[in-house]
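Morning. Coffee machine broken again, so started the prediction first thing and wrote up yesterday's gels while waiting. Chain of 430 residues, entered below exactly as on the submission form.
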Amino acid sequence: MLFKKLSDVSKAEMQKLLCREAGLTDVGGTVAAVLSDVRAKGDEALREYTKKFDRVELDNFEVSEEEIEKAVQGIDVKLLEHLEKAASNIRAFHEAQLPEKTWFMELSPGIELGQKATPLESVGAYAPGGRAAYPSTVLMTVIPARVAGVEEVIVCTPPQADGSILPLTLAAAKVAGADKVFKLGGVQAIGAMAYGTESVPKVQKIVGPGNVFVTAAKMQIRDVAEIDFPAGPSEVLIIADDSAKAEMVAADIIAQAEHDPNAVSVLVTPSEALAKAVKEEVFLQAEKTKRSEIVKVSLENAAVLTLESLEACIDFSNKFGPEHLEIMVENSDFVLDRIKNAGSIFVGNYAPVSAGDYASGTNHVLPTAGYAKLYSGLNINHFIKYSSIQKISKNGLESLKETIIALAEEEGLQAHADAVRVRFRDGHPK
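Came back before lunch.
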């Protein structure tokens, strides 16, 4: 863990913090080869790579209705209620994001401008496996697509060692409204959804987080399917002052660290006392946590930095562009108003990232590695296309005629100008 005053941080240390390399170029060749095989050989390639990477031999990739029903029936009733509560909150939040389907405004007499919102027809949701399974990610990806009105939503998630899918993941798919679930992970899953195979339907867009291989695969298939954004190892940045409790701050750092050895956790604070107390708490909690081995490796990427002021903390956060930003300060609105770059923002001592990860209703599929400077987190607009509309009468076009003709001729596009002129020749209807 890096524990310093910001003024003492070396250029190399700062570069490592601010420029979190996604590592996409390092795996690009391997990913391209797998995608090429999936595109050419379809299900045959899926079987080959599932055996190679997941060590599972499968004849059928699609999870049957019977498997899903059996999984749901085997889940504790209380746990199922919690899953449905989380789903309900996620649904409510994304319903609030829904745009007006079609709207018009009168620009001037005879000219009406508008917009039409149309949901995508098909979406593929990727839910990671590996060190942990993520039923919550199924909720976060499928529910917004359904709320947006997407006709077909499929899920791909890696199989367990016995070739099955975690029952709670299947329950999440059912609660969220997925049409189909496939036992597929990694690059081969992204390729299957992008290109389509004998078993897996091709989709228009692929959403969901994954490791560096999955992220690289998503970036490489954008010629045939759109994606949400790059989403790699998870990260949190916490802005805190003396009003924050060290035990809570440390707990949030540990929670982030348990995701993955490559996860990043950063605290920036103007309080040296808080920084010292948090560091001590982090090491205490790291010894006791269940995923201690992963946490201890991840903490090598962590930093507790003391800055000269709250304004400096805000400036650092905007340069960092965190996936998750926690604001644990006395005057939270002062900080919130000045934040420019963050995937999801958690305000107050009682708003841990865990809340957004599972049940508050906001989406936990978010841009990482500084991509929050460029992309929004997953939201309803990722599943909708927008078409502009213009309704123009003869009188309306006449009010624009001279402007259109002048600009078209200036660009050397005579036919564009003539397309307007022809409408004002004698004999044409009003």
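The chain has 17 helices and 14 strands. Going to sketch it on the whiteboard this afternoon.
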